[in-house]
Amino acid sequence: LSRKGEKHMNIFELFGRIGINNKEANRAIDETTGKAEGAHGKLSAIFGKIGQVAVKAGKVMATGLAIGVTALSTLTGVAVKHYAEYEQLVGGVETLFGSGGQSIEEYAASIGKSVEEARGQFDQLNSAQSEVMNNAKNAYKTAGLSANAYMETVTSFSASLIQSVGGDTQKAAKLADQTIVDMSDNANKMGTSMEAIQNAYNGFSKQNYTMLDNLKLGFGGTKEEMQRLLDEAEKLSGVKYNIDSFADITEAIHVMQENMGIAGTTSKEAASTISGSIGMMKAAWENFLTGMADPDQDFGELVGALTESISVALGNIVPRLVQALPRLIEGLAQVIQTLAGYLPEIVGALLPGLVEGATKLLVALSETLPGLFDVLFH
């Protein structure tokens, strides 16, 4: 071939090589694209799974948030309810023991005296009111009652009590606390419901003695039996008690309960028994709820009381669980071992009947199913 022909061949060879190189380049591009698409697919799958997990986590978080919001709303509602009761009951205590929530000037004007003339009486009333409120605050330990329950109880009979001590609200406040503790002690020791005991005392305040036997002190529900109780108390204390005085009746009952070993049991049980400490914890919890809605209460003190009561309750419960668990396991093991000897006999007695019943069931099904299939598929 001429040089000219060789040049043409070289040109064709060059174009051929370019074509081959283009194919290889395209193949390389395709492979790269495929790998990229594969990687993209894997990444999409990974991110898809992450997305699914995120969605599920989001649903869980949303559910948890909804539950938390609902619980918080419920708790807030209960707290507001307790506080509304608390406000009303405080008003009752202020009316019975204090100055009715009045300022010194308002109180002086209401009794027709100057501020200086009324100050001593005003201070006495406020002192009695403060004592009742402090007793109510501590009632979760002394009487196993929340502050609300304490004030509700004290306002139910204190009008008669104050009247029976000649209007001495400070003396009445002390007697009221002693009476409520006596009620709780009697309920804890004798097993009578607190409501039944409160009804009995409310009856006594109205000179109705029919429920005296609710206290289970060995006296029946009559006026004569109440007089007998007062006489017995007089023998023990040397103090003469008047049946027409509600204050004297509460004092005489206290003497009898002291003599019978009933007095002081509530505070002892709150510290040493499961039921008593749980009652204390429940009362502290109710006080805590009330304080949530009351900006004037010492919330730190309420938290401390609740924490203390929970600690006492756990201190009473946990040792019992530690003692009971090994005995429970041992007891279950003994029951299983005892039953093991009867199992072959029980199985032997039951097995023929079970086999026979199962056989009859299969025969009945084999006879019934063909007809059922005909109805269903034709």
Gist of the model:
This protein is mainly α and 378 residues long. 83% of the residues lie in helices and 0% in strands. The protein has 12 helices and no strands.
| Residue share in helix | over 70%
Query: Using only CA atoms, what is the Rg?
Result: 42 Å
Shape: extended
As residue ranges, the low-confidence spans are 1-20
What's the order of the H and E elements? HHHHHHHHHHHH
Cα-to-Cα separation, first versus last residue: 89 Å
Mean pLDDT: 82
Helices and strands: which structural class? mainly alpha
Number of helices: 12
Tell me which oligomeric state these chains represent.
single chain
Number of strands: 0
Strand content: under 5%
Describe the largest sheet: none
Could you characterize what this model shows?
With 378 residues, the chain is mainly α. Helix content is 83%, strand content 0%. The protein has helices spanning 3-97, 104-110, 115-142, 147-164, 169-190, 194-205, 223-237, 246-259, 265-272, 274-292, 299-340, 343-377. The protein is extended. The relative contact order is 0.06.
List keywords for this structure.
mainly alpha, 378 residues
Secondary structure: elements and pairs:
Blueprint lengths: L2 H95 L6 H7 L4 H28 L4 H18 L4 H22 L3 H12 L17 H15 L8 H14 L5 H8 L1 H19 L6 H42 L2 H35 L1
Helix pairs in contact: 1-3, 1-4, 1-10, 2-3, 3-4, 3-5, 3-10, 4-5, 4-6, 5-8, 5-9, 7-8, 9-10, 10-11
